[in-house]
Amino acid sequence: MDYGQTIHYLYNKLPLYSTIGIKAYKADLNNTIALCEYLGDPQNKIKTIHIAGTNGKGSASHMLAAVFQQSGYNTGLYTSPHLKDFRERIKLNGEMIPQDFVIDFVERTKTFSNEINPSFFELTFVMALEYFAQQKVDIAIIETGLGGRLDSTNVITPEVAIITNIGFDHMDILGDTIEKIATEKAGIIKQNIPVIIGETLPSTKTIFLEKAAEKNAPVFFAEEAFKIISATPVSEKLEVEILPNNTAKTKIYNLDLPALYQAKNLRTVLTALDVLQNKYLLKEENIKYALSHVKDITGLHGRWEVIQRNPLVVLDVAHNVDGIQQLINQINNSSYKALHIVFGMVKDKEIEKVLELLPKNATYYFTKAQIPRALPEEELLQRAQKFNLTGSSYDEVNKALNAAMDTATEEDMIIVCGSVFVVGEVN
What we know:
Blueprint: H1 3-13, H2 17-20, H3 30-38, E1 48-52, H4 57-70, E2 75-78, E3 90-92, E4 95-96, H5 99-116, H6 120-134, E5 139-143, E6 160-163, H7 171-174, H8 178-185, E7 195-197, H9 202-214, E8 219-221, H10 222-225, E9 226-234, E10 237-244, E11 251-255, H11 262-276, H12 284-291, H13 294-298, E12 305-308, E13 312-315, H14 321-332, E14 339-343, H15 351-357, E15 363-366, H16 377-385, E16 390-393, H17 397-407, E17 413-417, H18 420-424
Parallel strand pairs: 1-5, 1-6, 2-5, 6-7, 7-8, 13-17, 14-15, 14-17, 15-16
Antiparallel strand pairs: 2-3, 3-4, 9-10, 10-11, 12-13
Helix pairs in contact: 1-5, 3-5, 3-6, 4-11, 4-12, 5-6, 8-9
């Protein structure tokens, strides 16, 4: 097979959550364990950091990868989903996995895969493990796909586990209360392995403390370790003043991820780096440089990403209630004459709860990504009208964006959001 045929096999022969949703989800680790055993257990040959959470885990993963790369470590990074290229999911020192490795891996595992029928996520995660083991990484940052306890990534035993936050998403799988979702995420807490908790609610804090005690896992709450004094957008950066709990002197970090919500992710990352300092040489100057160049070092996209000015065009992958709330906070702290929102969602999200949050003063360009899970744009428009959101519908993302560009003046702002897949289709 060539690369095109290999990608076709991955997308069309394996159950893929991003296209068919819950039918692709395997509620156990059996296939992942079997694939790992078939390949000689690559997960046991590498050191890892495991990151779960409703929102922020992608940004936190890239921040950590940037710090380790800048500190001279051979660094693997596994995230999902991708925006444009499958190989974005698996990176070594900021470079995507080679096409040849993808081809070779699929050919080597094809016979066994046909026997056990893994999902797209199961096979491609094990591909990442095999690649990182072959490349002898010093550390691999592993982002969960969905949940934690039964996520394929939970076959690893990390140096540290991180749970960024808990919000409502994937309730058809993880449960319909914050407590149930927190319990699933807490499933990544391992025996004697430190765990970092980014944000808590009273109900979730109890769950994390109980699980950590059960596993004898040291637990660190980022909200207690660092206090955010201020977060100020400066040009295309975010200047964050932060106070460690063990000192009276504040520190300033200039993030190249300018959204206000990144201050919380920074706090979580700094807490993890503190815990890891006894195992890795992580100098402050390398940490600060890395955090101010995350996009350049790792290739992160889609987090309040400005792709044009006059009018200002911003891409953001916010797609659930918590993420949209953070995005609206950012919009409210931005200056513009008129607001245009290119918006699409997938069917299995809390559509009404998200629509209820969206600003009424914007002009909307409802659209859909070209995947089966996408909510039809005309249905989205009809549902949005119940919340006094006005606009038109477009059957392709770039048609919607072009319409917004034609309408907007130079002083306006255009936001593309609602789905990772919508953002990924922007030309």
